[in-house]
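In the design runs reported in the main text, the only information available to the sequence generator was the tokenized backbone. The following block is the verbatim input for one such run; it is reproduced so that readers can re-run the procedure and compare outputs position by position.
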């Protein structure tokens, strides 16, 4: 499996630990990003978990024209650059247009292709041609084996620094489900696989002028994905999700993150075969 390098974080090597990609859905303010980055970094350091900060400078695919999209490319990249410099962590953000890729690559370690755009050939190739790591979110409309065509487009540029993310598949109207077999099927293509535990509980357009979601099931799906086997987790987190300006229904409360990560790491240790052997006990205990 190719090893993906994003700044000082390595993803995909068996000897390297599970990686966390986490942050607010959108850059609401510099202070919010700093609060989230500082808190998550403290948690991941305590757990020995490599951390990549995530936030979007623009949410170009909001349900409603009146929805908050962000502060734009220039201001957004300034915030991401400051997070990268202050906390010494790699940063990830979405790109929606080919012309954004070079500017984003000057600041960010990973360029993310949104699920709705995962078949956009020009965007995939423009992002890959920057030489940065690329995280492609599998579209809600794609079967796991269809990712082969996405991979071919990225590989055509010579870039092998590629992550593939599962974030649920459409199942009727306003509903997503997660086929856990998609994770090993995508992993079989030879690239590290990420599970997005927050967008997978989304109800697209389910709130009329916004997407709804079922936040309560984030831990269930995330633990299940860890049991199947993944290389990284993607979680959108917020101190007060219900007040979030984007994806308020599906962000994980920041205070819930430590317990969830401890559970996931325990499961991951079993899957990787790194869990310490259980004590056999004494004869009297058997």
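Verbatim output:
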């Amino acid at each position: 499996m190719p090893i993906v390098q994003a700044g000082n974080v390595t993803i995909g090597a068996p000897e390297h630990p599970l990686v966390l990609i986490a942050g607010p859905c959108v850059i609401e303010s510099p202070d919010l990003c700093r609060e989230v980055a500082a808190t998550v970094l403290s948690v991941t350091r305590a757990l020995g978990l490599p951390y990549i900060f995530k936030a979007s400078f623009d949410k170009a695919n909001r349900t409603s024209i009146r929805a908050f999209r962000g502060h734009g490319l220039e201001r957004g990249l300034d915030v991401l650059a400051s997070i990268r410099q202050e906390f010494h962590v790699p940063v990830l953000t979405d790109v929606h247009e080919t012309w954004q890729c070079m500017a984003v690559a000057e600041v960010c370690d990973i360029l993310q292709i949104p699920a709705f755009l995962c078949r956009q050939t020009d965007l995939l190739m423009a992002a890959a041609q920057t030489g940065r790591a690329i995280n492609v979110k599998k579209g809600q409309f794609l079967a796991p084996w269809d990712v082969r065509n996405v991979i071919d487009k990225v590989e055509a540029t010579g870039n092998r620094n590629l992550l593939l993310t599962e974030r649920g598949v459409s199942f009727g109207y306003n509903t997503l489900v997660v086929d856990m077999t998609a994770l090993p099927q995508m992993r079989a293509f030879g690239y590290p696989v990420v599970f997005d535990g927050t967008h997978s509980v989304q109800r697209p357009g389910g709130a009329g002028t916004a997407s709804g979601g079922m936040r309560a099931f984030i831990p269930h799906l995330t633990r299940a994905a860890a049991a199947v086997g993944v290389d990284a987790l993607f979680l959108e987190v917020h101190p007060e999700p219900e007040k979030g300006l984007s994806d308020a229904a599906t962000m994980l409360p920041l205070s819930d993150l430590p317990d969830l990560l401890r559970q996931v790491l325990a499961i991951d240790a079993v899957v990787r075969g790194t869990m310490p052997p259980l004590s056999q006990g004494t004869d009297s205990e058997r």
